[in-house]
Amino acid sequence: MYAVLHPSNFFAQAAAHQRPELRKSPFVVLDGEPPSEMVFAANNAARSQGVEIGMTRIQAEAFSEVVALRRVIEHEHTAHATLHHIACMFSPRIESVEERPGTYALDIRGMDLLYGNAVELANKLRRSVMTAGFLANIAVAENFHAAISLACGRAGVSVVPSGGEAHAIGQLPVTALELAPEHEATFAVWGIRTCAELAALAETDLIARLGQAGKRLHSLACGTWPHLMFPIDRASKPVERMELDFPVEELERLLFLLSRMTTELLERVRGKALAIAALRVVLRLDGGAEHERTVRPALPLQDTATLLKLLQLDLETHPPTAGVVGLELHAQSAAPYRAQHGLFLPQAPEPGNQCSVRG
User: Fold this and answer.
1) What domains are defined for the chain?
2) Rounded to two decimals, what is the model's pTM?
3) pLDDT digits 0-9 by tens, 172-199
């Protein structure tokens, strides 16, 4: 059983996540080098006014109410990390759907003991995504590809009963199957508009005309195409990024920002029952240079205060040479240290929670 999380219009949502005041205003995201920027993404409010993907900056600026934003890759990385963290809370086995930005497929077998039945889990997953500031469609089905098609083609929550994949995706447009341009043109000539119409064709006739691609498309339309899941490595390296409007030179202010980022990383790591074995700090300095430092506690930690103290001591010894305009915090996760105490020994702090500082 798979649950697929799909944030529609991901790139626009990633931009709005950093500028929440623009959520209800028409805006576009521009990509490219000036003065030849093109509209890379647009929210629904901008599209309703006539903005289209691929317009030039000059064309987009003709719409007086539309706000133009520059594409920031770091904002997309942050959005991916947030959605990835939420997906990991609901399943230990998740896969990133590369052809659908921001989309994750979760193997939810056995998760009913924690989150209830498929309907309850899907609704809880969607509420968690919305709490994080994103709007996503959730689809649950026994077939991996059917769940993806439903999540990308239907708004809200869709739960398919066992064996009902063909009926569920039947009314979706055939383009929901991610057709190659030549196949899309062929089906348009044949008058095939929905997945149900494609599934009604004889598989042997499709293979005769389209080759093995015809077999795959027919199975996708029937909701029976198999999939071998490639879960994301559990011991992943979560990252937090932050862009600053003005250079920060005081170490105290820098540590305040690093504290927030460390807390976010620890929450994500703890959600996988892991700890932090190393922290790599990359400071982008005013002028273009980078200052990189790495701290490695003696044992994997789940304690923010200790990690922050290690960062403080290292940065006091090796301070940046200019104001900081951007921060990246990379964590290397590992299994937490567990000490086995004797039954009759007095209680003592875990070794990983001891931190001595010498002046």
Assistant:
1) 1-139 (3.40.1170.60), 239-344+347-353 (3.30.1490.100)
2) 0.69
3) 999 988 888 899 999 999 999 999 999 9
